[in-house]
Amino acid sequence: MPRLLYLCENINFIVPNANIKLEKVEVMLPGCESLPDVIQDISPDLDSYYLVKRLPVVELVKEEFVKEILRKGHFTGISVGTRVDNHTVVAVLPSGHLILSVDKDLYQELGLSGKPSKYTGRNATRFVVEIDLFNANHSNGKKQYNRVLWSLKDRLNLTFNFIFSWEPINEEKVNFMQLTRLWDKYVLEDLSIVSHTIQKTQTTVVPKLSHNQSLVSTPGDGQDVSSIYEYIGTISCDANQVGGPGIYSSSYTCPEPCEEVKGITCQRWSGLISSEKIKQLLKALRSFVKSDAFVPWAALTVHGFDDSPVSWWRKEHGFHKNGCNLYTILILPDDTYWLYMAIGTNDECP
Amino acid sequence: MEGEFERIVLKSPQYHYMMVQLDLFGAKANFDSDLFKNLIVKALKGLHGDVGGSIAVDIIRFEKKSLKSILRVPSIGLVKVWSALTLYSSHNDKPCHFKVSKVSPHLPSLSVNSRDFTSELLLEKV
User: Fold this and answer.
1) Cβ B98 vs Cβ B25: under 8 Å
2) Is the pLDDT of residue B69 over 90?
3) pLDDT on residue A179
4) Do B62 and A349 touch (CB under 8 A)?
5) CA distance B82 to B99
């Protein structure tokens, strides 16, 4: 049975640096009938990411790639079409770590040292191999480097379809040409971030959150943190059923106390989105909520890939029944935030 | 304005959420959310009796064309609901089955599906 674990923190400042791979970002604004310009201007659909097919994993560990690309920008990549519960998944983090989540047979054939997965019981059937590409021993001529190259190329030539995004530190376009030069045998396809809007333009009720509200609800209080999170989920899933005490199909109603707003806008962007973009969105939402009196709060939800091999703070992530891997930041006008971290069954509590 | 830092960890869910789809094997039927709920209650009563039938299942979202739905189920009744839906096999003497695609204690996680998204990415570019 899927386990519930989520944390809610009440904080005055944010350092979003959770290190999970970001697949979808949602912004929810009650009180707005359309996405405000200040958010539209920094919308992630102006960014793009890339797909490269049948890329050998060995290309990600070569010294030239690490020097010219990884060290000179934020590179994030993950294999696509692979599932963390039964295939091999490869991921590269901006911290310079290459993570391989493999099954037992491949692990034995590969010959690299790794750890058994925490989520497969006593007889481990999955292993996680982590290679630190920024380590001083990972350079030409060293034993570790030669071993890694030999395992990934000569012993087993593993290839994957891979999506990645790369932000050079110095904003020099010439660095991207370095990447196309290094990977000239492979086709790099430019993909754009897909945007989707859910709008409710009629008058709607939303939970009313008071300033300095405690996270711990008092008995008899109709509203607690989990019911607010559930409300965010109903908007995000585009709930279309009207519920109430006398209605047969659903008894769900908005948690009390609640207030009326003109409408709600929920904008979703899908694709490989960088954490820098999340920080920009958060900053823009924060100032927007403070400046607009009709917007009682805003919610920023970030979903990671279900099949990512790592989640919070580079800890192992498994799929179990849903692979959920997301967090929501609820922004209030008095500069406080509620951070909900929804942790899956096969994940560690951060 | 400085407020107190609070951190709470919630481990016992009150509700679980299921994404289900009713497959009628090509037969046409005119369903609305009340009829769909009736079917779920019938499935529960059929396997678990009146006790099963009294489990309060709420329909959060219902799509008439595809017969996909998001249900809210009290966590103590999740196993009963899931088993009843899995074993329900005929409606008005016609074969049918419920496909449970996702179950989670977090409702926002049901709004996205990265496996479908990444497989679409690969299909488009073929």
Assistant:
1) no
2) yes
3) 80
4) no
5) 10
Task: Give CA–CA dist A213/A243, Å, rounded.
Answer: 27
Neighbours of B91 (CB within 10 A): 18
- pLDDT for A16 equals 40
Instruction: Give me the mean pLDDT over the A271-281 stretch.
Output: 83
Higher pLDDT, A38 or A68: A68
Query: Cβ atoms within 10 A of the Cβ of B8, count?
Result: 16
Contact A249 B62 (CB under 8 A): yes
Mean pLDDT (chain A, rounded): 79
* Residues near B14 by beta carbon (within 8 Å), at least 6 away in sequence: A226, B74, B75
Is the pLDDT at A245 greater than 70? The verdict is: yes
Phi first, then psi: what are they for B109, rounded to 5°? -70, -15
Q: Distance between CA atoms of A252 and A272, rounded to whole angstroms?
A: 34
Pick the residue of A226, A302, A303, A307 with the most B CBs within 10 A to test the interface with B by mutation. Answer: A226
How many other CB atoms are found less than 10 A from the CB of residue A197?
10
Mapped onto helix, strand or coil, the DSSP state of residue A112 is coil
Torsion of CA A173, A94, A5, A283, to 10 degrees: -40
pTM: 0.85
B92 touches A at CB < 8 Å:
no
Q: Give the helix/strand (H/E) hosting A299.
A: strand A298-304
Instruction: Answer yes or no: are the C-beta atoms of A65 and A182 closer than 8 Å.
Output: yes
Task: Give the separation between CA A345 and CA A182, rounded to whole angstroms.
Answer: 40
Write down the ipTM of this complex.
0.90
Residue carrying the six token digits 């707003």: A261
DSSP-based three-state secondary structure for B74: strand
* Cβ contact A106:A192 at 8 Å: no
- Cα nearest neighbour of B40 on chain A: A249
